[in-house]
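Handout, page 2. Input:
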Amino acid sequence: MNGEKTYFTDNMISVTNTRIIATGTTYPLNGVTAVSWQKHVVGGKFMGWVMMILGFSIGLQSLLGHRFFTALICLSVFVWGLTKVRKPNYYSIVVSTAGQQGEIFANTSHDYIQQIVEAINQAIIERG
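Output:
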């Protein structure tokens, strides 16, 4: 084979017929036996919704009753709940070798991760 064939490259990750470079670490492709992706669900979203509902309802009652300090505390509870609810799930690339398995890269975009996994699979297939 002449030269290095690139299957995928951007500023975060590169996949060629000889190696994978992800977040500054190089993984030789000849040791990779399989690749897959995993979805990681961020916990605490239910509690975030509870905090938002309680913060909003108690805060509104406090505001109507002219208890501004209590309303301010409830607003902060609401915002805290909102940050928990808005945390996105993320996906990771899992590479297997003959002896072990490990995550090499993660991102919040499923399509992006899927595109990289397909490139690694293509490199493994063409490697033979």
